[in-house]
Amino acid sequence: MRKTNFYEVAGHVFGVEAEDYIFEYADNYSFFLIEEKSSPLFKLEVKSEKFLQCYQEELSQEEEGQKIICGHTNDGKSVYEFILGGIKTGVLVCGENFVENVLYINKGYEKFSLDNALMIIFALASASKSTLLFHSSTIEKDGKGYMFLGKSGTGKSTHSRLWLKNIPQTELLNDDNPAVRIFNGNTVKVFGTPWSGKTPCYKNKSCELRSIVVLKQAPYNKITPLSGIFAYAAVVPGVSGKRWVKTIADSLHETENSLIQLVKVFQLECLPDDEASVLCYNTIK
Description:
The protein folds into 2 domains: about 1-125, no CATH class; about 130-285, 3-Layer(aba) Sandwich (Rossmann fold). The protein contains 5 helices and 18 strands. It has helices at about 110-125, 155-165, 230-235, 245-260, 275-285, and strands at about 1-10, 10-20, 35, 40-45, 55-65, 65-70, 80-85, 85-95, 100-105, 130-135, 135-140, 145-150, 170-175, 180-185, 185-190, 205-215, 220-225, 265-270.
């Protein structure tokens, strides 16, 4: 039996239509479940069958045994194929403006494909709504949010754990994919999402974003404020998006440019030690 569930993340509503059993792989979305609403930002229809069409590959991205191939069909629809350990797990086909989308899932990989599909659609569909989906670990303290950015393996999660250990009254808001949204051109909030990497942290809450810290491994601890083009260049790599499509790239640029004017950005060159977390907090608090 098929049904549709509706969810709200960072103030954006989306619907997922699928067979009942699919939702057994969607526990992380239960915290964001809402009553049915009209005019959602997007909908995703999930089909437990193979995608048989051919498509033209545009580019691919691979990391830690996971690969996403991006392309398009002959009629211009965007295609994203998800591969895990060399196994094809599913194909996402996006409609115009990412409003109506279909995910073809190979059985046995429901959660992997569903999470990847919804992250991609959310990032692309919300790009024009002053919203950015980040690759970041995020801490909340006293109602303020602090985001840690950096390349994979830099130590974002480690730095968050050091804050939890050394800075009183802190909690983890999200450990991999928080959403940031600008309201009325002057208020920036960071939101928990259903996507948190290897750490099960799915909090349906938000707080004011106080600072963004870009981590860089070093044999010492030093923190430096960034501004202008340096802040922009530091923040952009942490944002998910389809930048080879001009409309999306323009929307992301506009939001990113506003973000660095509203939120302080720092670079932390550091060791993975207690001193780094204390130095960071005392500087940016």
